[in-house]
Every structure is written in C-alpha cells, then in structure tokens.
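Internal QA ticket QA-208
Title: Verify multi-chain structure generation after dependency bump
Assignee: T.L.

Test input:
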Amino acid sequence: MDYLTRIGQETRYPNTMNFAGRGIGERLVHHSIIDFVGNTPLVKLNQIPQEHQLACEIYVKCEYMNPGGSIKDRIAQSMIADAMSKGLVHHDTEFVEPTSGNTGIGIAFACTQNGHKSVIVTTEKNSDEKVNTLRLLGAKVIQTKNSDEEMAVAERIRDSDPKKYIMLNQFANRVNPQTHYDTTAKEIMSALPGVDMLVAGVGTGGTVSGTAHRLKEQFPDCLIVSPEPDGSTMILHNRKPHPFLVEGIGGSKPDPVFDESIVDHAEVITDKESFLMARNMSKKEGILCGGSSGCAMMAAIKAAKKYNFGVGKKIVVILPDSIRNYMNKFVNDQWMEAHLFLDPPKHTMSWWNLP
Ligand code: PMP
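Actual output:
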C-alpha cells in the first residue's frame, strides 16, 4: 500500500484539492518567489468572535503570508518598480529607507532578486528578529535612538551621494497607498460580496488610506476603523503621548500618505491587549500574527460592540506581519511575565511534581 493510501488521502482531501487550493496533479513552477507577493488568504475566524459574544463575521487578511513576511512586500515591490520605470535606478543604486523594519525587509527581499544593495535605518525599539532578518538579506542596518531620527539619518545618507542612493520614502510616496488601492482592496472585494467594516493600523497610513478609499467606492457605508496604540497621538492628537511597545504602528504625527479623513473611528488599545490578542489568535485560530495585528483585532472587537454589529455584518481586519518578528518578545512567556502582561505560572511541572 503506498503512503498516501495508507494515511487516507482521499478522506483528508475529499475535494481532491491540495493545501494551496490547486487541483492535485497540477504542477505549477514559479520562476521567482516574488510571484507570491500579494493575493494573500482572507480567512474567517471561528472562535474569537464567539468568545467575545459577537454574531458578526470577522475575516482576516493574512498579510503575514507574503514571502518576505509582511504586507510591506507589496509596497517595496511597487515602489522599486515605479522608481525603475522612471529611470531612477542604475546598476549600482543603493536603496536607503527609514522603516520600523518590515518595509526594509521588503526592500532587502526584493534586492535578492535584482542585485541592488540597501541601507535600512530603524529605531532600537524594533525587534532584533527584524534586524537579523535584514542583515541576513544583505542590508546594512543603522539603528537610531528614536523614530524622529530615522528620517534625518536616512536623508543624510541619501544627500551624501544622491547619484548612488535612492530613498523610496514610503511616508510620502503615493505609490504606497496606490498599491493598496490597486491590490489589497481589490483582493478583498473579489473575495466578499460586501464589507461593513475595515480595520487597519496606521504606520505610514498607506494600508488604511489606499484600501479604504477603494472599499468606500464600492461600499460607501463601510466603516473604517483604526487602532490607536495607547501612547500614540497619530489619529487622536489630544491624547497624552508616552512610549509603547507595539511595533509598526502609531507615532507622534501623521505622514503625507495618511489620509486622516478616511478613518471614521479610532479605538485606543494598550500593549497588553494587543499582545494577549495576538497570542490568542495563534492559540485559538492558528493565525500566527504579530502585535500590530493583535492591536487591530482588539479594535475590531471593541468597534463591533460599539456599533452593534450583529448577524450578517462583515468585518475585514488586516494582519500586517507574523510572530516570526517577535519570537523573543510577546511570543516568549518570560518576556510577557517581565512586562506584567501575563501572570507567572502557579505550578511549573518538574521532576518533583510529575503527575
Ligand atoms: N503593522 C506593522 C507590523 C508594520 O510594520 C506596519 C508598517 N510600518 C504597519 C502595521 C502599518 O502599515 P502602514 O505603514 O501601511 O500604515
């Protein structure tokens, strides 16, 4: 008996579809991993809405399944393609970019295919996992004390040799929101007959601005919700600023690509809420997403309650990156306990208390 018959292949895959959704026997060869940027899965949650007594449908857009690990693969690709089409990229061009890490990874990832080099400027707050990934992909990494310095340092490098360095500048580059208008939103619209609420965090604001503009054209009543990390004043300008740990979203002031007017409602979410929700997404749904995803999910749940979303209402939450970036942060129980986000275990199983 061959292996597949032995493990009961017919019962496990009754519709003869394999895990990639293609028919068995259909052998597709891709010529570059870059082909897999975008077209990410939209997945219905089956546990968490019920856990929060919600009858509405919550769908998550799994951007962490992009091959470089985040939603930023999309804009890295399109901003580089745009610069190339304008004749700005020469064979010895180096990309220099200020980023919380994921755009840098997207650029360095794209550079593995086109042979260019990159210099990535990021703050010390951002995880070692992102920095190590950047270095592995061949990027030079410069770490600054705070995020306000990121841009200044990147500009200084670019201005030191404008013929050699290009700054794609995700914060002001209109290709950033345009990419989400053209791809992320379109994918959501082709998957669902209607969307009543879109939830997305704001870093540059490119994701929410581009996706929301397109969704509102099709579904004018779609409510646009963003989480505001507690300590950030990006959307709710009058709040008291203080440091926070969630990465990739929030900040002191909006950037040019962020169309503030598109956000109908903001929910303040704490670090603890974000990380506990991100962990719960892994545990309960098998959705291995990062901290900003947990933050967005928490905002979705609070907004769904506030706006009385019931049976039939559809919410889409964007999940920008994965647990991979945070293995030594919120994924780690001891890190959670040290930050008082989790109580230490009452009983540790050891040789003296084995059952
Ligand atoms: N989450 C994470 C983890 C990110 O890295 C980013 C981008 N900084 C965002 C959310 C926000 O995306 P955007 O820049 O499109 O607002």
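Spot checks passed. The pocket of 4'-deoxy-4'-aminopyridoxal-5'-phosphate is lined by residues 70, 72, 100, 102, 201-207, 247-249, 290, 292, 320-321 (CB under 6 Å).
Status: verified.
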